[in-house]
Amino acid sequence: MSLPRVTACSDLQxxxxxxxxxxxxxxxxxxxxxxxKTALEPxxxxxxxxAKGKGCTLVPVPLPAKRLIFSNTGPVDRDYDDLRRFVxxxxxxxxxxxxxxxxxxxxxxxxxxxxxxxxKQASLCALLGGLSATYVPLEMREADKAKAKKISELGWYGDxxxxxxxxxxxxxxxxxxxxxxxxxxxxxxxxVEEYVREVFKGSxxxxxxxxxxxxLEKEYPCMAAVNRAASVIPRHDGRLIWLTYKPEGEIKxxxxxxxxxxxxxxxxxxxxxxxVMAGMSRDKGGAAAVAGFMKSVDLIKxxxxxxxxxxxxxxxxxxANCYVADEIITSRAGVRLRVGNTDAEGRMAMVDVLxxxxxxxxxQPDPHLFTIATLxxxxxxxxxxxxxxxxxxxxxHAGVGLSLMKAGDAIGDMFEMSTIRREDWDFNVDKxxxxxxxxxxxxxxxxxTPRGHQMPGAFLQQVSGxxxxxxxxxxxLKYTHLDIAGAAGELPHPTTGAPVAALAQLLLN
Length: 509
Fold this sequence. Notes:
Elements (H helix, E strand, L loop, with lengths): L4 E4 L10 E6 L9 H13 L1 H5 L2 E6 L6 E6 L11 H16 L5 E5 L9 H14 L5 H6 L9 E4 L3 H22 L7 H11 L5 E7 L1 H7 L1 H7 L11 E7 L7 E13 L19 H16 L4 E12 L11 E3 L5 E3 L6 H17 L5 E7 L3 H7 L3 E5 L1 H6 L1 H12 L3 E5 L2 H7 L9 E2 L15 H10 L13 E6 L16 H8 L2
Parallel strand pairs: 1-6, 2-4, 2-5, 5-6, 9-10, 9-13, 12-16, 13-17, 14-15
Antiparallel strand pairs: 3-4, 7-8, 8-10, 11-12, 14-17
Helix pairs in contact: 3-4, 4-6, 6-10, 8-9, 9-11, 10-17, 11-16, 14-17, 15-16
């Protein structure tokens, strides 16, 4: 991996480091160690912009590190400020140290949000931001070993337990970035399998893979429809990758996660035309996040919680063998649907895997199901660069989405809440009353469809059979759908690893 060695340090006189990165808001200068304060004061007195505004200031310091980078968070006391100020300042400060030639910067943080989040969470966010600045994309690491790491070591002038947690979250985010951000051939489904097997080799996470078009058509017919065109090209043929973690001792909670892993989305027969296909290698961010989160699970090894994750890795190719609109398919749960748009492939790839998770969840201790997907353009229009959580009735009753939103706020990996309404359920019902129960999608883009990100959340429940596990039913199951299309990261930038940190804060911290 690209992560450098990360070490805790309590001595500013250490000669191991060649730069000190100080992350702090404007009002925290009184708290910082005297040598740093003395070095900074002359500059900040001359430059009010550096003292009050967001940005980095580099000055010499009479310590073995020689360089001091003050990464100002900017204001943190306004109603709309949040802990991302510390994430962004941590990232910017380490990047500035690297640009200055540092190979072993020491990162430290002072200050906190005055109205939300304690100093410990601010420290965690600053460190996660600093760690993110060290990421090197997988293709670059493989193409040029000399560029595999940006720095050799990152020091942390702070709590060691906090550092250990942050590193384990970051290692998960690296896995998510590697899978989510790599090109369509490097992370075609068979190569995702190879990568995942290597990541979890000898770990506490068991890897199992289902493959073969005939098998998928029997067990996961909706996923198989998407895979049909790619199945005749061995290097593109789909995979359903299962990752399972079972702790020793009593299990009190069981979590199931299903990730959308479209390795490339041409749109299929309803092809993406007009230049909008570029970037569709990023349509596997949900499965990438699932794998990344499971990496953090493996490292943290939580007690009392079992995790089962399904990565639905398929390529939505176009060709003589591709599935087309008007086809009638019966899902794993026995629901007949008519395909309305082959570019609504994400829900198709996930829904039978969700049905399998539903089957496994019944009777397990405190089960909760998630789907995670870069699913709709509408999510980006509605919420911008934020992940969106949508609960079913049992999950809403338990406050899961709100808890995830609070967890994201506490670690700088933000969520917005959305609600799946009756109109979303009604939208999916086939209006003819003949042939099928569900219309898979209308033939307009989600971005031109009212409630275009909520409606797929209803579809996933209707077609997986989760509609039989509502609050009113004998075996209610908590289910939360996460649309991360806005937060996952678009080309040309690296993927973000969202929402690994928020899930780790909710379920592992």
